[in-house]
## 1
Amino acid sequence: LWGDRLEGAVVAIGNAPTALFHLLETIADGGPRPAAVVGIPVGFIGSAESKVALAENPFGIPWLVVHGRRGGSALAASAVNALAREEEL
């Protein structure tokens, strides 16, 4: 799905823990590496675990998480906006 767009991108995941797990698997399998990952999926199943997996990633990719079950697309988008705003200052 991400294909050519993943290398050097800032990836924001705010809804599906499975997407975050898949991203980490893709990188582990030698796939393209993003510049940074905002991993803030929400939910009861897999959410906290996916964030821990990102925080403990051995790839040296910068990350941002909100530990636990809280998160969501709005938080992920806000985090990306804050990063972009910081770059503008």
## 2
Amino acid sequence: MELLIRNAQLRKRKGLVDIAVDKGKIVKIAKGIKEEAAKVIDAGGNLVTEAFCNAHLHLC
């Protein structure tokens, strides 16, 4: 697995979870994921959300 985000708070969910990411896609969301990852990030109980994107564009 490429990335493991530990201790993440998700919207509309109680408690903290781990998020496993492989090949750019979320593959698992659960408490206490045991698999190894190339990179581990401790979210420290902070809110983890999808990317914020502003698709508003003016073409002249």
## 3
Amino acid sequence: GFVVLKRRWVVERTFAWLGKSRRMAKDYEALVETAENLVYEVMIRLMVRRLAKPSP
């Protein structure tokens, strides 16, 4: 049956981050490899931005 996952919010947040990327909002890619590489690219960009933020 349906079971609520304890850390589901982590997955939902990640999907929301991916959805904010214009190219990831819709899947127009013909090849799965291309779509997978786009996911990597978007996540790398997000993490670099997060690391580059000046700490308060």
## 4
Amino acid sequence: MTVLGALASTFSFDPALSAALGEKNASIVCAEHTWPLLLSGLAQRTENEIVIVAAPTGLMAGQLRDDLVAFLPERDVVLFPAWETLPFERVSPNVETMGKRLEVLWRIKNDPPKIIVTGVRALLQHLSNTVVEPLVIKQKTQVDMDELISTLARFGYRREELVEHRGEFARRGSIIDVFPSTADTPIRIDLWGDEVDRLTTFNVNDQRSTDDLVSVQIFPARELIINSEVAARAQNLIAEEPWGQENWERIAQGMTFDGMESWLPWVATDSKVLTDVCAESASVHIVLIEPRRLRDRARDLIAEEDD
């Protein structure tokens, strides 16, 4: 525990504050600069529970997450970002945004964080009902080259001559270069036969290998992963909703295309929101930052989508 974390833990046991935090529903009025202190104190009082902190905007959520890291271990606090795109804008969200969201959803099921900070847009957004397992590559393990390439393509990675941006991969002989959607640097997988002989990061400018890695997780570069259920749903939509026939056909055929994520609410067989996913894995505390402003923002977003 950090020094600030210990302070937060002590502060949370103030009798009046402790009583409020122990209530099923409570309203706490406090200065903005004390939010991280109170939230980290709440997180430290909970075991096997997830605290969802909802802010009116994504910018506020990002700033709050950065502040919370001073009080809690970085791994205990994650940001669940919203898409930068509007409903039916026909443009895919940023690759890193989609990767980070998928990583958080996977962690909720496998390694739950103590606090998830999010904006109201992300909180309201419907999610795919499938939590995708990342592709895990480890030193000295067996990897089938063709299967690896097939998985990367299914995950929405684009095949290029050189890897320079997130969501790209390239093959040169026995070497596969990949820029994972959640990573700051691309990785190089060097095979000897079917065995991972070397696993490194590399520099996009000179393409030279840099640091050795023991293992790496590769999350998808697209949030809509076409599986048999999604393809079947898209096939049914061709007759049910003929106005979108071109897109339904492409999804039914397993094709990836820019803007395909905007069709997720139609083809997801059992879509959920963030609170649903969390509740399936742990007890959930929901903290609303500036509730009135958050409610107004939610109303505006719902009206925007209806229009």
